[in-house]
Design goal:
The chain has a single domain, classed as MetI-like (MetI-like fold, Orthogonal Bundle), CATH 1.10.3720.10. Helix content is about 75%, strand content about 0%. The chain has 14 helices and no strands. It is elongated and about 75 Å long.
Length: about 300
């Protein structure tokens, strides 16, 4: 009895000392230097984009006589063919590119989780209809679907967000359905059903919170893909309006001058690259935090 009491006290102490997800996240950032660098870089980009009006040295559409000017003190990243400051356009472009990345993934996450949870929880003909649609969408690359949807809806920021969001729904739906099929067989779900809990309460109170870990990790990865998709659509002329600076649009405008003005294509590509790498580094770190085996190691 004494040994049992001692063991129960140790288990209670371990539970009491168990770190929160925020503490685990801070520890992981300290351990993983790549994730720490990614967090710093992404924070700088987000803050710069949010405060672009005060941070950017020039108006992004203001023209100067110094056309296709090389990087200098006046224009650190040079100017484009219309004399517009490239650094200012890239800072303002962060607003659109990052906004598209985070907003599209948020919409796709909500829609995909809703479809996946409904398919996995109810099964039957509901599962058949939803998953046949998901399988059909899964057969095509996300970018091809986004291009098709933009061609149907038309160009513009809102249409680009809708198109990319719909293109990413299948990823979240598949993950959510797989998690629901596993979690719905757990004892606490059966206990909640026995106590008379409604289907909505079981789904959103007991199942979805326990399925968030892989969905959050997928969301971080999808943000980088969404940014690349927006850049690709803008590069093809299917993105936002030409007067709105985005990284993909700036990159597309540099094609005619890449041989004699290398900075017009290199710097937008570098911005896209470091943003995607930073998000991927954070996604890897978040995956380690959400992994039970890694949590024990932390």
């Amino acid at each position: 009895m004494a040994d049992l009491a001692i063991q129960e006290q140790r288990d209670s102490d371990d539970t009491y000392r168990r770190p929160s997800h925020m503490q685990l996240w801070r520890r992981q950032l300290i351990r993983d230097k790549k994730a720490l660098i990614g967090a710093i870089v992404l924070t700088v980009l987000v803050v710069s984009g949010a405060l672009a009006y005060w941070v950017a040295p020039y108006d992004p559409n203001a023209m100067d006589y110094d056309m296709i000017g090389q990087p200098s003190w006046a224009h650190p990243l040079g100017t484009d063919d219309l004399g517009r400051d490239l650094l200012s356009r890239l800072i303002y472009g962060a607003q659109v590119s990052l906004f598209v990345g985070f907003s599209t993934v948020s919409i796709a996450l909500v829609a995909g989780v809703g479809l996946g949870v409904a398919a996995g929880f109810f099964g039957g003909w509901i599962d058949t209809i939803i998953m046949r649609y998901i399988d059909l969408q899964w057969a095509f690359p996300n970018f091809i679907i986004a291009v098709y949807l933009v061609a149907v809806f038309g160009t513009g920021l809102s249409n680009v967000i809708i198109a990319i969001s719909l293109a990413f729904v299948d990823d979240f739906a598949r993950i959510a359905r797989g998690m629901v099929l596993t979690i719905r067989e757990e004892q606490y779900v059966a206990a909640a059903r026995t106590l008379g809990a409604s289907n909505n309460r079981i789904m959103w109170r007991h199942i979805v919170p326990n399925a968030l870990a892989p969905l959050i990790v997928q969301a971080t990865v999808s943000v980088s893909y969404a940014i690349l998709a927006e850049a690709g659509l803008s590069f093809l002329g299917l993105g936002v309006q030409a007067s709105t600076p985005t990284w993909g649009l700036i990159l597309a405008e540099s094609r005619s001058f890449i041989s004699r003005a290398w900075w017009l294509g290199v710097f937008p590509g570098v911005f896209i690259m470091i943003t995607v790498l930073s998000i991927n580094f954070l996604g890897d770190a978040m995956r380690d935090v959400m992994d039970v085996k890694e949590v024990k190691a932390l």
